[in-house]
Design brief:
heterodimer, A: three-stranded antiparallel β-sheet, B: alpha/beta
Chain lengths: ~675, ~400
């Protein structure tokens, strides 16, 4: 399938129209549910138990996908169809004003799926000419006649709308339907709805307690990634599939996940833009991706009252949660009016509420809804662009870290948290692996690094020798030991390892950058700057200049500077370093910019060991130096929030972030 | 068998209740029956089982009237069921009277029932219908009307109190006319308390009638222990899930769920879904505890909501909530005096009768049971599981 056709297909992705095989392959995170529904339909057909299910899921959560797949599966079962009449109503069955309308829709759906039912077609035609008081009875008779001796499964969407008092057939229709299914216990209903309607929630409603209710949960990050990969695979896009497996691809997926929150429909919309241009700025792609969403959200706005629209517009621009009083003031309305409107907006999932002490704060529930609206109203989405790029860099950086230093990162974290048994277990596993394969140089090298970090120097040295003896790459071996020594604070020893590594391979780049980090930790700023020049030169001359390693290196340099060097040296180093980095190649500046999110979060993760004064100095450096060279406003905002939250114990610090910023902040820093 | 809480069950999936059914048939020998229970206790299943397997000599007309909004709708439903049954009268023409009556009013054979002259002459049509039914040969007919109180409520809402009262009186009149033949009986069932509707008619329309005082009352509550055991066998043993210490398991299930089939099914469904191979008595308690937090399970919200709607319209809501809150903290019976004293401590009570009448309402509505074996009246929640729910959610 060529790319443009694929994109067109994806743009019109609607489970109503897609290939059953593709729908089945892309059924991620919902397979158990569909398997269960299939089981229930088979159990109920011809049996004494008739199962009733109602699937509740927010807009774009994949309800249609689930029902479509279950329909496809059941439809292909010829044996089952002998004992079960399957009626699948279209997604947008609008205009069902009465129970009669509903039964007629069922009959039309039967004709759509079973076109040979000529008797039904004729009977349906005759109904239109019957006196009104006989139409309903006749329609029901026709329906029962169509089923013969078979049981009936109705698959329908938007149950809440069909049952609604103004948009559907209301209480009378519900009672009539309830009577029908009671009188003829041959019906199963598998339905979906965006929210729990009163007609199902209300304890006095006819269908209260009738359905077993299933709430569709959002896709997890892993599931969202699996979904995107499944799409790539299902549509035969090998390039896309491969790209999504790279650190950059995964970083982008994680960034997009923050905004889509595991929403199927939104993931599909963003899929195309995630993968269409791997070089372009993520924020540009993101803003383009919003275009198809705008009409979708505009429709939703139209369903609100004018007062509610005013509230939503205000909250969209505010970007951070507000109290009822603030909203009322801005909207020129009475607080109790605003309160009651907010209650409705809350029920309909347009806004979310955060309790803070005795106050409640409100914000737009769906991030993209707010962003689309914000982008419409001002600055072409400027604030969100910055955040999207920040996020893309953060997650790409994390992915890179995981790939290149994964075990090391994990061991560090667990060691810091006192999970010594993990390290011991890991050592035991490595030793076991070496028993099986004593000549594995890489395993010896990893073991050496592990032991070095744990401070077991003699054992580390022995493992180092074994690694050398079995032919481990000397550059990597020395670099790794240098890393381990640097992490233990043995900077001079680390430097000597890095220098030795450079002797082993004069073309190597990483040892230069590692020496910079070590020198900064020792406070030797001028030496560090000199070495930075060498590092950049060396990288420029290398086979793969300006690679992801450079971003990682800049991150480590900055962390070293900010955590260990004298605070008075911050500005001096940064000014000179950025001069060197940006001297004739803006690409290195870009790499530096990409490293900022990781730097910020590394510092905030370690904030217990960094004083408030030091953090404030770092913030000043960002504001006074870094911001002159590149976009750093999001980094500054996060740093400031971190200082306010952790050091000044400001309970409202987090509320000054937008919902998506807060989500990332709390997730990365493990704030509950 | 797959557990199917809240779903539609028929045939073999309706488990147990033989004792209750036998009791109903015994009552029907003498008079018609009002059949009531809290929602989701299984009334409809009992009715369905009775209609699928009527006692020898009986045939059942099973009518759902939740959507009926005029007495003529009820006539139509009963007629349709009778017609479906295709019984023959000894006069050779089944349902001859009502057919003639219809033709006399409408000028045509039976077709639609919403024609104004037909609607307004519902009483004579109903009379003719019952006459036809009671005269059929060889069978005694049981007319089962499910959601009867809901129909009365609908009629009152759409057409006013007077027609509701007239319908109730007409039904009583026809029962007294045709029941002595012993060929026809009525079983009127509903979860909404008919007594609440009658109370409303009394207070709003000065209704003096007592349309059901000649009928037996049958309240359906939890299943007996033997039926609970049957359910466990069907939903667990037959699904390959073995019960550790079966006797204790069944007893625990019986006590934890008050024998209410809906909750037994919920527990069994959770066992089935978790794909366990064996379950113990303690697992039941664990599931019930977890279920209490599950917003998807329709516990007793409708019971709570009824207080806020119907009871409020009778001015008894606040008293009821206070009484139920108090009793939710007590597992055993609480003496009447203590309840009155407690209510007095929470709100103004001019006469003890106010509290007593509220207690009667709560009794009639199956929230509470009463015991007077000690010589003094004492009350507690009918269902332990409802008490626990009330304690967590309303206490």
């Amino acid at each position: 399938m060529n790319k443009s056709k694929t994109i067109r297909t994806l743009q019109s992705f609607s489970p109503g129209w897609s290939d059953p095989e593709i729908l089945e392959k892309t059924l991620v995170g919902r397979r158990d549910l569909v398997d269960r529904l299939e089981e229930l339909a088979i159990d109920g057909a011809g049996g004494p138990n008739k199962h009733q299910r109602l699937i509740i899921g927010f807009r774009g959560s994949g309800k249609t996908h689930v029902l479509r797949v279950i329909h496809n599966r059941l439809w292909s079962d010829e044996e089952l169809k002998k004992r079960l009449l399957i009626i699948y109503l279209l997604e947008d069955e609008l205009g069902v004003a009465s129970f009669l309308d509903f039964v007629v829709r069922l009959l039309r759906a039967i004709l759509r799926w079973y076109p040979d039912q000529k008797e039904i077609a004729q009977g349906l035609e005759e109904i239109y000419d019957l006196p009104p008081d006989r139409q309903e009875t006749r329609a029901v008779q026709l329906l029962l006649h169509a089923s013969g001796t078979r049981d009936i499964l109705i698959i329908m969407e938007n149950l809440g709308i069909t049952f609604d008092n103004t948009k559907g057939f209301g209480l009378k229709g519900q009672q009539a339907l309830r009577d029908l299914v009671q009188h003829h216990p041959r019906f199963m209903i598998f339905a979906s709805s965006q929210a729990l309607a009163e007609s199902v929630k209300d304890a006095n409603a006819p269908f209260y307690g009738f359905f077993k209710i299933i709430h569709l949960r959002r896709l997890t990050l892993d599931e969202a990634m699996a979904f995107l990969m499944a799409m790539a695979s299902a549509y035969g896009n090998q390039d896309v599939f491969s790209f999504l497996n790279t650190a950059q691809g995964r970083g982008r997926m994680r960034a997009i996940y923050e905004f889509t929150g595991g929403n199927h429909r939104l993931l599909v919309v963003f899929y195309e833009f995630l993968t269409s241009d791997s070089v372009a700025k993520l924020s540009d792609l993101f803003i383009q991706a919003l275009d198809p969403l705008k009409p979708f959200y505009q429709e939703q706005m139209k369903s609100l009252s004018a007062q509610q629209q005013k509230i939503i517009q205000f909250l969209s621009l505010k970007r951070s949660p507000c109290t009822v009083k603030e909203i009322a003031r801005a909207c020129l309305a009475a607080p109790n009016t605003v309160s009651s409107q907010l209650k409705d907006l809350l029920d309909r999932n347009f806004v979310g509420r955060i309790g803070q002490g005795r106050e409640s704060y409100y914000e737009i529930a769906e991030t993209l809804f707010r962003i689309c609206h914000e982008a419409e109203l001002e600055q072409e989405g400027a604030p969100v662009r910055l955040f999207v790029d920040f996020l893309g860099n953060l997650y790409t950086g994390e992915e890179l870290q995981l790939r290149y230093r994964g075990f090391s990162l994990l061991a560090n974290r667990l060691g810091a948290e006192g999970h010594i048994p993990f390290a011991e277990e890991a050592e035991a596993m490595h030793r076991k692996a070496l028993e099986l394969e004593p000549g594995n140089a890489d395993a010896w090298a990893i073991l050496s690094g592990m032991l070095e970090k744990l401070g077991r120097l003699d054992d580390a040295a022995a493992a180092f020798q074994e690694a050398e003896r079995h032919g481990a790459d000397r550059l990597n071996l020395l670099n790794s030991r240098g890393e381990a020594r640097r992490e233990r604070g043995e900077y001079m020893l680390a430097i000597s390892d890095y220098e030795e590594a450079l002797q082993a391979d004069p073309q190597a780049v990483l040892p230069h950058f590692n020496i910079v980090s070590s020198l900064l930790a020792l406070g030797r700023i001028e030496d560090a700057l000199a070495r930075l020049s060498s590092a950049i030169e060396s990288d420029r001359a290398s086979k793969t200049p300006r690679s992801n390693y450079v971003t990682q290196s800049f991150f480590e340099n900055c962390v070293s500077l900010f955590e260990h060097a004298p605070t008075a040296s911050f500005d001096r180093y940064l000014t000179a370093a950025l001069d060197i980095i940006g001297s004739d190649d803006p690409a290195y500046l870009r790499r530096f910019e990409e490293s900022l999110p990781l730097t910020i979060f590394a510092l905030l993760e370690d904030q217990e060991n960094i004083s408030e004064l030091r953090l404030s100095r770092i913030l000043e450096s960002f504001q006074d130096v870094i911001k002159k060279w590149m976009e750093a406003s999001v980094a500054v905002r996060f740093l400031k929030t971190g200082i306010d939250h952790f050091k000044k114990k400001d309970k409202k610090a987090l509320l000054r972030l937008t919902k998506e910023e807060r989500s990332v902040f709390c997730k990365v820093l493990n704030i509950v | 068998m797959k557990a199917n809480p809240g779903g539609t069950v028929t045939g073999d999936a309706i488990i147990g209740r033989e004792k209750e059914i036998a009791d109903i048939w015994m009552k029907l020998e003498k008079r018609s029956v009002i059949f009531t229970a809290e929602r989701r206790v299984g009334k409809t299943c009992v009715l369905r089982k009775m209609s699928e397997h009527p006692r020898d000599g009986w045939r059942c007309l099973f009518c759902w009237v939740e959507s009926d909004r005029h007495p003529i709708d009820c006539v139509e439903k009963i007629f349709a069921e009778a017609n479906r049954l295709e019984a023959r009268s000894n006069k050779g023409i089944w349902l001859g009277r009502i057919r003639s009556a219809y033709k006399a009013i409408a000028g045509t054979e039976i077709s639609g029932w919403k024609l104004p002259p037909i609607q307004s002459d519902w009483k004579s049509l109903l009379d003719a219908l019952f006459a036809d039914i009671s005269e059929n040969t060889g069978n005694r007919i049981l007319i089962m009307i499910d959601e009867f109180p809901m129909m009365i409520s609908n009629i009152i809402k759409d057409h006013g109190g007077p027609i509701g009262m007239e319908f109730l009186d007409a039904l009583r009149e026809f029962r007294q006319k045709y029941e002595p033949s012993n060929r026809i009986r009525f079983l009127m069932s509903g979860s909404m308390g008919l007594h609440l509707i009658l109370q409303k008619l009394k207070s709003d329309h000065q209704y003096k009638g007592n349309p059901t005082n000649d009928m037996s009352l049958k309240v359906l509550s939890g299943m007996i222990r033997e039926d609970v055991q049957l359910m466990c066998v069907k939903y667990l043993d037959e699904e390959g899930i073995s019960r550790n210490e079966p006797d204790e398991f069944d007893q625990r299930m019986y006590e934890a769920t008050d024998g209410l089939p809906l909750y037994i099914q919920y527990v069994c469904e959770r066992f089935q879904d978790s794909k366990r191979q064996e379950v113990s008595p303690d697992d039941i308690d664990a599931e019930i505890r977890a279920m209490m937090d599950d917003r998807e399970i329709p516990w007793f919200n409708n019971a709570a909501e009824r207080i806020e709607t119907y009871y409020a319209s009778l001015g008894a809501d606040r008293r009821s909530l206070i009484i139920l809150k108090m009793l939710s903290y007590e597992e055993g019976f609480v003496p009447e005096e203590e309840i009155i004293d407690y209510v007095r401590s929470q709100m103004t009570v001019e006469y003890d009768e106010e509290v007593l009448s509220t207690l009667e309402l709560l009794l009639d509505d199956n929230y509470l049971v009463r015991d007077s074996s000690t010589g003094k009246r004492r009350y507690r929640f009918r269902y332990g599981i409802m008490r626990r729910w009330w304690e967590i959610n309303k206490g």
